[in-house]
Every structure is written in structure tokens, then in C-alpha cells.
Fold each of these.
Amino acid sequence: MAVSRAPETESELLSRAHALAGLTLAELGQRLGVPVPADLTRAKGWFGQALERALGATASSRAAPDFEALGVELKTLPVGAKGVPCESTFVCTIDLSRIGDVDWTTSLVRKKLARVLWAPVEGARDIPVPARRIGTALLWSPSADDEDALRFDWEELAGIIGRGDVENLTGHLGRHLQVRPKAASSRSRRRGVDGEGASFAALPRGFYLRASFTARILAERFGAPGSNAGDQYGV
């Protein structure tokens, strides 16, 4: 059932996403003709990649919204047994050597979060991966208050990196947005710039949304977290 044609409207995209609600990952894999991993530890991106294929995403690995013509980014959201997100959500990688020359209005974070298709999926570890069910997707854009809050965090975090203090950043900084290592291996390195302007090899970093922020998005759409994530999100 691989969808090769990109959706032409948001309504078409949302209709495709809603048609997947209630399917298990095994059923999604069967439709796409791809095997489902038994463990996501080494295949964390499997569900997102499967959804991109099923929904007709076009951006691949480029620094652009997944559905370029629509300006919509796809973000998967594993939720626990009570309907609360299990983890923070990756937004984008950080160009450590250039972020000091970027402002919020032109930042990749703002571009990625301008319009998001959130796709909940059961993420409780006691549910076998193939048996986990897909929830009801929703389209979201940040409110003015959301954008102000994200901008505040981004400017604080980007300023620290731009001043050459990336090595002093911890995941505790930022109320809604945080910076965390983003690398397949601890040996991975990217070009960073220190406080004196000298280059050095730094661990790659990425911007992440805290789970408390995405939990509020779900609560605004589906109501307060309940006792059953499946019922909560329409699966």
C-alpha cells in the first residue's frame, strides 16, 4: 500500500492519517510490505519512516517539512498507558558552527514547528512492538503564546551555543525546548566554535520538545490524560 503520490491538501493528508488509526504496527508493516522490528532500541525511526511512506512524504532527509508543498512536518508521538507522551520529541539537528548567525524567524526550529501532523502511537514497553496501535493524528500550529515561549527558549539556548559554550549546555535548560546530544555513536563529532572563535570537534546536538509540552498539545485536542491511551486517542 505504499503511497507514492504526495497529498495535495491538508485535508487529504489528514484523511490518509486518520485511515491508519487503530491499525497495529504489524498491520501497517503488512500493508507496506516491510518487516516490523521486534525491538525499537536500534530502530527508533521505524514508525516515522513507515508513516512517511504511507502518507506520501517528500522531504526525505532534507532540512524541510516532510510534506514540502503543504509546509507540514510529521512527528510521531509514543504515548504511555495513561495517554502521556513517553519521551521528548526530536525537532531538528543544530548547526553548531552557524547558529550564532541565525535568528528565530529564520530558524529551522520555527520552520519545523510551524505546522505539524502529530501521530500518536502506543509506546508502553510492555506492549510488543508489532501489537502497538496507531492513534488518531492531529494537525497543529503553535499559538501566539506557544511561539513566544518557544522563541524565548530558542534564543537562550542558541545564544549559549553561539557564544561558544555548547559544552556547558545540559538538558535541564529550557522550559519547553531543550538541547540534547543527537548522534548514532558517542564517537560522532561535528564542527563547533568555542568562545574564542576557534573550531573544535563537538558531539552533535539537536533541539527537542519536552514531553510536558507535547502532553499539553494532546490534552487540548483529546482532553485530560485518561486511564487508557488506546481509548484516549481514538484507537
Note: The two ends are 20 Å apart (CA to CA).
Amino acid sequence: MPLLRVVFRLQYLTVFVEEMRPRDHDATHLVKAVKGRPLNPRQYSNVSIDGKTIPIRDGNKERALEWFAEWAVPIVDSHAKGRKVLIPIPSSKTVAASPDDFRTALIARAIAEKCTSSVVVAPILRWSKTMPSASEEGGSRDPRVLYPNLLLISGIPSGACILIDDVTTSGGHLIAAAWKLADVKREVSLAICCGCTTHEQLDDPFSVPDMTLDISR
């Protein structure tokens, strides 16, 4: 049974729980920054980037990509031998004709720039049509619905494939992407995501258990 290990930087509480703690607010703030979403102008979260404490606000939210990348780099560098290929999951509006500067591609590049091993970014997944967002427009998270709408727009460079996404809930988009790679005989056993969307408050929102997905068909 082929399995996909999914690792997360933090919990993303999209529905406020009864007693939100400061670290819950920080986690939600930071995943929004990584996603490029507007931030509460009155809120900031301190993070460590290159050994310096940086307050992440709306005005400098792009620096959250560096912060996330620093966390992800050891995971990428230690995965498999030889070159790694980071494959970003396309945003819901990223179609075949879209440029390769969609958000998860920028996240993947931020990670690759900090890696010490040989890493390339391959933004080769696209949707055949604009898809309704699962979080905002009620779009599907079912991989059997998503998979027929995924396209590979070019070949995949040699190396161990790693999927990159900003936020994952059930893992449906990751499973669909793994199936699409399997169509061209490429295996993937690791995915790296910034946020895990959960509605149950964790003891530590910055310590999220890995998710294991069954990617067999």
C-alpha cells in the first residue's frame, strides 16, 4: 500500500474555539501570512529568521515565507538521496495558461533557496479549469473529483518528488496530485504543508502530528 507522509508547521484554526490562546492567534496569523492573505493590522507574531527575531505584520508578511522555509529545509534536505523536486499544489484558479508565480510555487522556491542539498522547483501541476475553493466556495476535497481536473503541463525533472501546499484539511488535493504523478511512473512519499486545518484545539498549535495518507487507487 503506497503511503504519503504529510508534515505540518502548525495548526490552522479556521473556526474560533471557545478560548483562543495567544499561540492559537499566532498560528492563525502566520499561516495567513504564508498564504499571502491580509492580516489584522493590529496583530503581529514574532518569529525567528536567520537567528533574528522578526515581528510579522501585514506590511512584511512575505517574510513569513522565509520563516516557514527555515523549518522545512531540514525535512527536504534529509529526504532521500540525490536531487529533490518540489512540486507545488496549484491554487484553485491556477489553470494551464497561468504563470508559475502562484502562491505555493513561491513557497516552494523560498524553501529551495535555503536548502543545502540539490533541490529544484517544478510547478508543473495545473487545473484544467478554475476550481471552486474548498474553504471559501464549497469546492470538493474528494480526490476522485479533483484528479480528473489536474493536468501535468510538462515533464518532471529527475529526483525524489515532494509535494508542497500551504494548507491541508483532509489531504484530498495531495492524494489527487500523487495519483497524477503516478500516471507518469513517479512516486511521492512526502508532502510538506504550512497549516493543518483542524477544528479541535491542540495543546501546542506549533506541534502538529504527521498525517499518513493512503494513496493507493
Note: The two ends are 9 Å apart (CA to CA).
